[in-house]
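Worked example

This section walks through a single chain of length 812. The input is the sequence exactly as stored; nothing has been trimmed or padded.
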Amino acid sequence: MLELAALPMLGRSVELTDLLAALRDPRARLVTLTGRGGVGKTRLALEAVQVVRAEARVPTHVVSLAGVLDAELVIAEVAATLGVSAAPQVDLQAALAEYVGANEMLLVLDNFEHVLPAASDVIELLERCPELRILVTSQAPLRLQRERVIALSPLPVPEPGEHDPQALLEFASVGIYCNRAAAVQRTFDLSDRNAAAVAALCRQLEGLPLAIELAAARAATLPAAEVIRHLDDAHLDIVRRVRGDAPDRHDDLRAAIQWSYAVLTPGAQFLLQRLSLVSGTFDLDAALHLNREADFGDVVDQLETLVDFHLVDPVAAGELARFHLASSIRAFGCEQLEATGDLEVARRVHIDYRASQARAAAIGVDGDDEVVWLAMLQADHDDLVAALQAALDAELTDAALDLACGLASLWGMRGYYDAQAQLLDRALKLGENTETAAYANALLWSGYLGFEHLPGADPAVLVERLERGEALARRLGDDEALLRALAHWLVVTPYTGDVARAVRASEEGLELAERTGHYRWLGQIEAWSGMLANELGDEARAAELGRSAVARARRHHDGRTLVLATLMLIPLRRKYPELAADTPSPEEALRAARAAGLGMYEAILLPMMTAEAVAAGDNAAALRLAGESLSIARTRSGSPIVGYNVMTMLSVAAACGDYDVAAFFHGAIREQIPAMTRVLSPQQVENHDAVLARTRATLGVDEFEAEARRGAQLTPADAIEAALAYVTNTRVAFESREQPTPAEAPPEHTNLTGRQREVLDLLVAGLSNKEIATRLGISPKTVMHHTVAIYRVLGVRGRAEAAVAAVRMQTS
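Given that input, the structure is written out below as tokens.
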């Protein structure tokens, strides 16, 4: 009989409770525990068997079917385990039924996935034995009407950024690693030194208990950080370890996957191989295109089989089905592709499919279905990027340019960073001598995105790309590309300072869009031209163009133009109240941005709305909006949006009377202010300068500079975290004004953890977050999380109040 492993079972209390409830339910006579290989089905089943034995004294028998290669021999294996032999002229099924009779019994059939045709024998045995219950462990369900299925998923894993050892031990995946590592290395201990690596390894192994145990079994020679370093190149080779007390397939993750793979039909095997090239998630259309030789119904059946065997996992993603392959299964599938000699053919099919999708998206985002196409690009982003990298490596120029242009339309809305710029640069270099619309658009996207999102980019290079893109569009007679060029010249004017070129682009763009009937381009060029007019001091012209753009956007349900026009008109509304009747409210524009998935515009609108709330004296609304805006900026490291959000915090902090905090945030972005003010309206610059002057006058020059120098020590990411901490704690203070202040009631500090006490002591000593991080050997981001928690527990708003509370804690 199978026995439980020596190591404890961790993190399955809920699943064990569900399984025991099913086994106790008289209506559930057949229970199937499913899950991918290595997820812990057998261990959980045996744990449940022990409980049933102890509480009900029901005879239990465990039958291992791993060595049974023919479904027709399943009943024989069951009979042999129970010690039943058939008499002459009596078959084994009848002999078993007679042996069990009307007695209670729990029969466990372990590893049923490769003998699924024997399901009919299981049903027959249940029908003959009214008190018999059967628990099956199988990677796939038996698909029987009376079957109750309990699916076992991998264990939860820590979120990125969670490095605190005590918090990590709450995750069973980390607990498994630590238990197994301690078994092979007595001195192993989870600490600040290795916690981040252990958490990252559990994430990369996707919470699969077998993979985590095998990786931990190497801890004496390969710590978690070393395993991570080799995972990309040797995923399946590094996750193995010979163990004498386990089946062969549990010594090796590759063998565990091979066990499932061998059971599949050739068609399902082929589909798994093709899907292994997909990064991220995919939909049914991708499966159909990657296996285009097969009929629709066959592909659906094959995909269903892969889901049944937990080789492909469904992903919750709205109305349309999406799927995902674990990284280890992808690695195995690629090995199979290479072994069959089909890798290059499959890779080309994958690239061609994604390139055609990106080509359609590049057109679609400029049309009426912009929202749909942006959502598609977002859903398939990881795989589109992987296809672009593959196309670049294979020097497939047309495919690379199509992919780059399709992705660029998403990057402009969701964020564009150095890694993406490098991909676009590679595509431009590959297509250097290409005279196509795709190459013209790639040049235009590169120039525009560089100015808007990469502060360190060379302006001369970006201008040259825009000029080449425009010239090529004119040579090709491509109106769409030319309209993009003219619009981009308007957008980048604050960076280039070339007002004359912008005026020409505005005039030609408005005329060309009107003449060719491109109403979406017309609306956007009106909005950008309005911003230009505002910069040039022609506010009447700006208002006229803004009104026209809004009316056009509403007629054609064009969310992007509606948002652009609102962004232009918001700063004007304070000076021209009559505009309010003709223009959307900021709230309407924010809804439109969110509905269209225009994340970049959302991150610009929210700070503007924050400033409006400050101007209206509504500090509670300003803090709420600032919190939303900062949460978005937090996900856009490296974007100018980060600096813009921190800049907004000056007015928020000053409005709340915290001028020292305002000076602190000013220091964090002081060097970026000249670049940021170039893209702000005159009204926004005027408001910022007024807040800055008031802050300096209130504090005095010396204190102002001292706080600014402190803020200057922050990285952009730390500045965002500091801003979020300030907003969170200030909101708490606003919402609890009626509560006793810390001076009236001593702070409750017993809930501070040991680490939080350490952080508090160093914080009181005057150390910066960066210095605290260095002293304690943790990241500045973790320090920030601790300080937020400390402020909440102590009921204080910042360092000064925390210091007072700490002194009182020592004297109380």
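What to look for: The first helix runs from residue 13 to 24.
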